[in-house]
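MODEL INPUT / OUTPUT PAIR
PAIR INDEX: 1
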Amino acid sequence: MDHSTGVISRERVVGVMSGWAVLPFTLLLPFAGAGLFLRGADAHSPVTALLGVLLAVLALFTVFGYFTLEPNQARVLILFGGYRGTVKRDGFHWANPFYSNGSGSGLRLGAKGEISIGVPKKHPRMKVSLRARNLNGEKLKVNDKQGNPIEIGAVIIWRVDDTAQALFDVDDYEEYVRLQSESALRHLCSQYAYDHGEEYEVTLRSGVDEVSQALAQELGQRLAKAGVAVDEARLTHLAYAPEIAQAMLRRQQAEAVIAARQKIVQGAVSMVDLALKDLAERKVVELDPERKAAMVSNLLVVLCGESEAQPVINTGTLYA
């Protein structure tokens, strides 16, 4: 619990008394106290009367020990600043009324002597939710591995796994999760290129599953210090920053055109090769090297051209 000595808090699950078992005593104690007080008053016995008053005060005191827990909810028990354990069983319970309620309310004295009303803490009665939570992070503007400015966002599904670490090892575990998630996402972007990486390299755009897995693994290591487990992490937004979006779009369009041209040329060469082989095997016409070159040139123009070919009938020869 003391960060200066490097001590890490560890959760201890404990049990407390059932509230239903203690409730009859709470209801009977006021009547017993009133009866003793009246009996002591009639018998002029100060001891009996005082015992009746004490029973009434005890009944009032026990009321503050009752609490309820919903499924996937826990209460951390702190007695005079010491951690005594965590109750995780749902239901109606009773525990020592001196256990801290964590309300944080009351009057406070400021540095200049002013008096203010304390703001209640985020965890009244030291209750901590163990349910899965979503953190839909804001869009961040970061640089990828190649230095290109990009916008990226992620959603993190997390839950409290160790209540002692969550409350004692970090100041505010919810804020800790938010800041560490942003830091992990920025660090992740510096390790991957947005797109157009080296051969077989995983990029942010092409390897979403791998990148999300890496993000979840890094977050798990970072948030383990706060007793938080990460169930899932996924990228929800990925785009180039507005200032370079148009330039990158033109580059993508140019690369798409080049890739399409390469495909067309490869197909055209295959078709020309097939045509020449069929002509030679079927002995349709005998072509010398010069006629073959002319035929290849014409076929490539027809197959690779964007406009429709206009046929020209040659009544002469290539040598005329």
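PAIR INDEX: 2
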Amino acid sequence: MPKRFLTSESVTEGHPDKVADRISDAILDALLQEDPNAHVACETFVTTGLVLVGGEISTTSYVDVDAVTRRVIREIGYDEPGLGFHHQDCAVISTIKEQSSDIAAAVGTAMEARDGQPHDPYDTVGAGDQGIMFGFACADTAELMPLPILLAHRLTQRLTEVRKLGALTYLRPDGKSQVTVDYENGTPLRVNTVLLAAQHAPDADQATLQRELTEAVIDPVLGRWLDDDTLVLVNSSGRFVIGGPASDTGMTGRKIIADTYGGFGSHGGGAFSGKDPTKVDRSASYMARYVAKNIVAAELAREAELQLAYAIGRAAPLAVNVNTNGTGAVPDEQLRDAVIEIFDFRPAAIIETFDLLRPIYEPFSAYGHFGRSDVAAPWEETNRVENLKRAVG
């Protein structure tokens, strides 16, 4: 492969879109804590002084949307006057309604089980929507994630950590990163360019930001990937005092590329946050990552992309496809047959495999859903490696 420059970006939990994602997932977790069978599709909109929570929820429990929302905003760091968005002063409006009875019926009784005959329990839960979902893995890193998105997330996590520890007192919650990696023959060689944007107090000057953020955030994270020719840009727009929902609206699901693989592989378009695991946008994407990661961990390919397709109300996927982009040790068709033999892609089976009816989702609302080492993610396990090796002979 020729020389290429590949780029990914990440944003902090204080970015307005991520504030919205975190509120949606926090409400989901609060519901699952009391009612594991809750059906949740919760979306959030934030702007200056306002949080609007909407969506469709069916549950036997109750969640105090106002209290959860304000707790999330406070923990993110919008707890100081003058930021234009404050956990105590913002208005919180809930327009949540009950899930459509038609959708509830389709999910509760899959089409495979509608003939009234005894069925495999995994045939009883239908997919919560139609659509296509993707999973990806590659041999760039120990986490089997593309290097640019892994580094971009680590930069925003480090930026948040430094802020919350009080190491750089002028930092505020909003922030972004972007990393461009120089690849040659499919192998990452070095970081070509790194961008870091950090919201700051009005009295912080550009020279201080450049020096201290490079020392406290960029150098510790990027380490050996930097060299003398790496272009380092800190707050390239200049002043970044107004940030978060005071500077821009935020909505659940607007950072789906940062949530997954940073532009590597494909994306089906469905958001994750605020959705319970009967929604295959979320659960099937987790399963697709699990399969792709096990393929690469088994050294059956240097990179693997899995595509799944579903119909609402049907348990079994309509299609399963494997693409190793020419890096496979065996033909993709053979690998696909092995995957279908080993993995069960029906929603109820996915939920059981990962024990998804638990309140585990809020930590994944920022810094990615894949390749995480700071939070337990069952879809990151590589416990099917030997099964795959045996299946392909």
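PAIR 2 NOTE: The mean pLDDT is 93.
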